[in-house]
């Protein structure tokens, strides 16, 4: 067996082990006693041109067994029928304020919080949807059991409908791993912030930290809000949303997917712990190493090398599939071509670095955001 191929196999195998340490687990919420009582809840939904996506969320809220809540949809200057659809589901529609620092999601959330009647606040992105009729029970129950303080944030389970959406698989894994706390012995690291699509907190803590008003202008509002709570020594708990909350990312098409991930990654990666970032880099490199070992062995037609490199390549496919399935219902067959997924991730990350550090701007939902 040639020495270079042995080195590739060894490095690839070590990278596989690093991957297991990097994404050790993703806790999810457990069922809560349905007789548990909770404070009145205000659900705040910032929405900009979400007419095509907000209905499933509003419908899922109507189906909840827990109904002691109000729904505030903050219309962020939409040019479609977002407000009319929200009203048809009985939601109270607020118009986002215009301020010198600009409008946007953070301003919408802040405006909604100011108008909220609930003791607890639940911020939901308009493209999310509660998975079943007991989702709110389970979400509120965990928050209450952990003291009803700080933030509980969930990363929704990604539902895939079209082939191109599978390209988000590695991004979903890295978003979760990049929070620092899902590695082996992850609690030793400080969380990078909070997940943005689903954030539960109590109103007193929210205004104590300055809430979304403090982070106006932050591109990664979820990370910044979590950090604001951490700065006040308030707990920030992050968990997986499987079985509780789902979303479909970038259904508008491939261009939207590229813009969305480009907006997030170069900035968000700054909050990832250096050790976790190193593990991510090693894990991504391992996919390319396993592919190189397989192609090299096929070229030399060395039987033993083909067998070992083939096993390593398939092990990487299986590990990547298992990681991605913690995050969403990605098509299993796409992971047989895992180098394409990793290559796409790498290309978008490099493009994101270019936009942030060279052009100093990103694009999202028709807006140019300076960074």
Automatic annotation (TrEMBL):
It is found in: Cell membrane. Belongs to the glycosyltransferase 2 family. CrtQ subfamily. Gene3D superfamilies: Spore Coat Polysaccharide Biosynthesis Protein SpsA, Chain A. GO terms for cellular component: plasma membrane. Coiled coil: none annotated. Residues 42-158 form the Glycosyltransferase 2-like domain. The chain crosses the membrane at residues 6-29, 163-182, 275-298, 304-323, 335-354. Pathway: Carotenoid biosynthesis; staphyloxanthin biosynthesis; staphyloxanthin from farnesyl diphosphate: step 4/5. One of its GO terms (biological process) is carotenoid biosynthetic process. Keywords: Carotenoid biosynthesis, Cell membrane, Glycosyltransferase, Membrane, Transferase, Transmembrane, Transmembrane helix. This is 4,4'-diaponeurosporenoate glycosyltransferase. Catalyzes the glycosylation of 4,4'-diaponeurosporenoate, i.e. the esterification of glucose at the C1'' position with the carboxyl group of 4,4'-diaponeurosporenic acid, to form glycosyl-4,4'-diaponeurosporenoate. This is a step in the biosynthesis of staphyloxanthin, an orange pigment present in most staphylococci strains. GO terms for molecular function: glycosyltransferase activity.
């Amino acid at each position: 067996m040639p020495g270079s191929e042995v080195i590739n196999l060894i490095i690839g195998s070590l990278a596989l082990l690093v991957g297991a340490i990097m994404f050790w687990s993703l806790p999810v919420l457990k069922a809560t006693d349905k007789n548990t009582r909770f404070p009145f809840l205000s659900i705040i939904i910032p929405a900009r041109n979400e007419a095509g996506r907000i209905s499933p969320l509003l419908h899922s809220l109507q189906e909840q067994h827990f109904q002691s809540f109000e729904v505030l949809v903050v219309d962020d200057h939409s040019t479609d029928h977002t407000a009319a659809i929200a009203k048809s589901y009985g939601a109270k529609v607020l118009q986002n304020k215009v301020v010198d620092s600009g409008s946007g999601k953070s301003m919408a959330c802040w405006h909604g919080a100011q108008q909220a009647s609930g003791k607890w606040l639940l911020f939901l992105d308009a493209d999310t949807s509660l998975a079943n009729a007991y989702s709110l029970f389970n979400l509120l129950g965990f928050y209450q059991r952990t003291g009803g303080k700080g933030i509980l944030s969930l990363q929704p389970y990604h539902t895939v409908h079209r082939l191109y959406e599978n390209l988000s698989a590695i991004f979903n894994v890295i978003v979760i791993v990049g929070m620092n706390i899902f590695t082996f012995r992850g609690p030793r690291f400080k969380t990078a912030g909070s997940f943005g699509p689903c954030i539960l907190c109590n109103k007193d803590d929210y205004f104590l930290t300055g809430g979304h008003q403090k982070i106006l202008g932050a591109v990664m509002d979820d990370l910044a809000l979590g950090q604001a709570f951490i700065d006040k020594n308030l707990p920030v708990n992050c968990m997986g949303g499987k079985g509780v909350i789902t979303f479909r990312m970038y259904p508008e098409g491939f261009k939207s997917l590229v813009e969305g991930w480009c907006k997030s990654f170069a900035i968000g990666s700054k909050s990832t712990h250096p050790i976790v970032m190193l593990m991510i880099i090693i894990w991504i490199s391992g996919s390319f190493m396993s592919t190189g070992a397989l192609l090299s062995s096929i070229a030399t037609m060395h039987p033993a090398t083909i067998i070992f490199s083939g096993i390593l390549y398939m092990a990487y496919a299986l590990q990547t599939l298992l990681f991605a399935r913690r995050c969403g219902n990605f098509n299993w067959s796409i992971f047989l071509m895992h180098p394409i997924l990793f290559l796409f991730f790498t290309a978008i990350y490099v493009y994101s670095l270019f936009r942030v550090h060279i052009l100093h701007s990103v694009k999202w939902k028709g807006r140019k955001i300076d960074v």
